[in-house]
Write a structure and sequence with these properties.
globular, Rossmann fold, alpha/beta, single chain, 4-stranded parallel beta sheet, 8 helices
Length: 210
């Protein structure tokens, strides 16, 4: 029988930490969409984002949010926010939620924050393993997978150490744990940070290089 914490809830550190991380991710995505709604990031809104990050240190446990947290900490490291830094922060928040279009048109898009920059050369052949996540303007998951198989590459359902390319669809998936990304994207960022040669690209880059 599991031990109970001071609130009478099961005391399961790993599970509880995962829930907190997911909660933080959803909360920060909501904040980002809110402050970007009018197309302008005001100084008070930038301070709001910084304050939220400072009061939620566990947010950095999420590998996607960690990309944002590190940049925000650098921006505010001198205790001063100039106009260029505010514009940089606005761009980071837009990247997190998938750009300006979903904010304007009201749909969920995949985050572009983890994309490789510059975008890598797309490679095909027996050594290349592709993973697709999200929904694609190009077509169904079966259609995009067929393009890879016809080029003698492999398509996998899960991101592993063998994965060489993760392709993010233009639109969010109902299966994702947040509105802008899910476990495949998190895992891809983790592996890339650990030194594995997984490359993360958007649908537009993949499709334009077929």
């Amino acid at each position: 029988m599991a031990q109970l914490d001071e609130d009478g809830q099961p005391d399961l550190p790993v599970l509880n930490a995962a829930r907190r991380t997911l909660r933080d991710a959803s909360e920060l995505l909501g904040i980002a969409k809110g402050v970007l709604a009018d197309g302008v990031l005001h100084e008070v809104e930038a301070e709001l984002v910084n304050g939220w990050i400072r009061s939620h240190p566990d947010a950095a446990d999420d590998p996607v949010l960690r990309l944002l947290v590190r940049r925000v900490q650098h921006i505010f490291s001198d205790g001063h926010l100039d106009d260029d830094e505010r514009l940089e922060l606005k761009g980071l928040l837009e990247d997190l939620v998938g750009g300006r279009a979903p904010l304007t048109l009201g749909y969920d898009a995949s985050t572009v924050l983890p994309l490789d920059k510059p975008a890598p050369l797309m490679c095909y052949g027996r050594d290349e393993v592709y993973v697709f996540t999200g929904r694609f303007a190009y077509g169904t998951r079966r259609q995009v997978a067929r393009e890879i198989l016809e080029r003698q590459s492999e398509v996998d359902d899960a991101v592993t150490r063998r994965t060489t390319f993760v392709v993010l669809g233009s639109f969010g998936s109902r299966d994702w744990t947040t509105s802008s990304y899910g476990t495949k994207i998190r895992r891809a960022v983790e592996l890339r940070e650990s030194g594995f040669s997984v490359r993360i690209v958007c649908e537009d880059h993949w499709a334009s290089n077929l």
